[in-house]
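Consider the following input, taken from an annotated entry for 3584_t:CDS:1 (Diversispora eburnea).
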Amino acid sequence: MTTSLAQFLEDTSSDEQSIKIIHSNIERIQTLQNQILASTSLQQEASQGEERNGLLVNTKDLLFQMKDRIRKIESENARLPATDSNLTVRKQRIELIRERFTDVLEKYRAVQDSYINQQKDRMSRQYRVVNPDASEQEIENYLSDPSGQPFQQALLRTDKAKDAMAYVQQRHGDIILIEQTIAELAQLFNEMQLQVEVQDTVLTEIDEKVQIVTEDTEKGADHVGRAYELALAARKKKWMTIGIVVAFSSIKQS
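Applying the prediction step yields:
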C-alpha cells in the first residue's frame, strides 16, 4: 500500500539518517583499521579488531536494509499512475537517497581496498625480514597461505618464531574477513546497478506503450473526425435532396 506524501517524506528522512549512521560507522571502521595497522601489540590489535568486527556486522545489516528500502519505494513508485500529483516528488527523493547510498558503498569499498593493500604490504615486509631472498612468487604464495611449510621453516630460523606466527595468523584471518566484506559490497553494488537497468527497461517499455497508445488515439481521433465529416456531408446532401424535392413539389402544386 502506497503511503501518503507526508508519511513518505518522514520515512525517507529516516532513511537519510540511516545512511548517515552507515557513513559514521565507515569512518570509525577506517580509524580502527588504521590503529590496527600501526599496532605493535597482539592484545591491542585483537581489542581494536573486536570493536571493528562488531561495526562490520552492524554496517552490513544497515546496508542490506537500505537496499531493500530503496527497492520497496521504487516498486511503489512504479505502481503509481503517471498522473499522480506526488509521483515527481517521490521519484526525486528516492533518486537522491539512491545516489547517497551508492556514494556510501563506494566509500566503504575504497576504505576496505586500501586496508587490504596495506595489510598485505605489511605482511610482505614481515616475510622479507624472515626471508630476505624471497621471490615475488614466494611472497604471493605466502599471502595466499601463510601457514604453509616454506614460511614456517623460515620462521624456525628466527628467535621469535612463535610470536611471528601468531601475528601472521591473526593478520591473515583479518584479510580474509575484509575480503569477504569487499565481496559483499561488490554484490550489493551490482544489485543496485542491475536494479537501475531493470527500471530503465521498464520505463522504456512504458514510454513505448504510451507512444503507441498516443498514436492509436490520434489515429482513432482522425478516423472519428473523418467519419464525422462524412456524416455531415451525407446529412447535408440529405437536406439538399429534401429541399429540392420540397421545392419541386411546391412548383408542381402552383
